[in-house]
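USER:
Before I trust my own judgement here, I would like a peer's view. Write it directly below this note and I will take it from there.

ASSISTANT:
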Amino acid sequence: MPTAVSHNFSGKINPDGTIGGIPDSWKQRLKLMITSEEAENPDNAEKAAQLFKWIDTRGCPSEEFMRVNSESPSNSVVSSETNSDASFVSYVELEESSENRISDQSEDAEASTVSNVSVAVDNNVVNDVNKVVCDNEVPTLRRKKKNHHMTRQGPRVTRNLSEEQILSELHDSCRISSPWELYEKDQEVGAGAAGVVSLATHKHTGEKVAVKDIDLNKQTKKDLILMEIKVMKELHHPNLVNFKEAYLVEMHLFVVMEYMEGGPLTDVVTETVMKEALISMVCNEVVKGIHYLHSKSILHRDIKSDNILLGMDGKVKITDFGFCANIQENEQRHTMVGTPYWMAPEVVNRKHYGKKVDIWSLGIMALEMKDGEPPYLKEAPLRALWLIAQEGKPRIEGRDQMSSEFQDFLDKCLEVDVDKRWSAEQLISHPFLRKAAEGKKIIPLIKAAKEQLDKQ
C-alpha cells in the first residue's frame, strides 16, 4: 500500500460567506470551529483548515461529534498521537464523579442556605481585593448559569505498547492478591468510567484509604492506567496524591491511594466564590507540586480543578497522572494531549512544547477559580480549540477589579510567547503567592460545596 498519501483541495470564499471546494466533513468542522463572519477572512479559514486538517474523521463519528446543543461532561480530554503519518483526535470520557458542571438554576437565584446559615449568592470574587479570608466567614455560593456542551464518545486511543505488554507491566507493578486481605472495605464513595472507588480502612494501622477497583476487561485506556501507576509509584511529594500500593486479581486492578476527603477542587470552584487569598493558596500548593514534577522531568499535561484534590485539613494535592510525559532537560513534545479548555496555544497549534504547558493550564485554572469555569467552557471543544489557537491569551473579565499581583500572576502564566512565560521555579517566588491564606481557610468552602451538591 502507498504511504504518506496527500490529497490537495483548492478552497474559495463564496459570495455568501461560505467556503467552497473542500470536503463536506471539513465544512461541518468549519461550522463548529468558526462563525460565518470569521470565515469571510481567508486568513482565518486557512488557520482553521490547518488546525483540523490532521483531525482524521475516523477519530470522531460525524453525527455524534457534531451535536452542539446537547450536554456533555466538562472533564473530557482530547488526545492526539501520531501513527504511520496519520494523526487523529479522540475524546476520552474520564471519571464521572466530578464531570457534570451543568446546572438548571436560574441566573437570578435567591439566597441559598448552608448549615442553616443564610449565604449570599454572588459571582464577584473581589469585593475587596486585599481583604483576607476571615475565621468563621460564611462562604458565598456561586450563582449558576445554564451551560451547553457537546456529547461525544471517544474511540480507542492508539499507543505504542500492545495490550499484552501493558498487562505484563501491570502484572509486574502489582501485588497478585486481594486488597481485602489487608483492608476493610467501608463504603462506596464514587463510581465512574474507570471503576468503583471505595473508602477502606487498613486492618492494622486504621489508616483511611481510597481503593479504586478497575475492571480491565472494560477499559480501552489501559495504557493511561499503567502510566498513572508508574508515575505515582516513583514520585513522592506533599502536593501529590500519595500512592499506597496496587493489587491485581485476574482482570481486576485495585489501586490503593491516599484518601482526600475534601474531594476535587471543582466542587469548590463551581459551588462557591473563592477570594484571592484562597486562589493564591491553591495556586501556591499546585505550583510546588508542578515544580517537583518538572524537577523530575515530568510534564503533567492535564492540570485543571478536576485533578486537584482537597483534604479536610486544607491540604491541596495534584492527582491523575495518566497523561504525564517524561522528557529530558531540553526535549520537547508535539502530541496533543490534555483537556481542550485548559490547553496551551502551543499544544493546540501542534508546535513542539515543554514544561510550560503546565504553567498555562495553571493560569487557566486560576481563572476557573475566579470565574467558576475556564474560558470558552460554553463552547464546543472544537470551537474552543479554534479560539485558543486564534485568540491566544483569553480575555479576563473584571481585570480592573483584581489586585495587581493577581493580574501579574495571570500575565506570567498566560503568556503566549513560551520563552516569556514563567517557569514553576520562577512562580514559586511570585508576589501573588505570598498573599496566600492558611490552608484551613478553604474548609468552610469545602463543606458548603458538599452540602450544595448533596441537595442537587
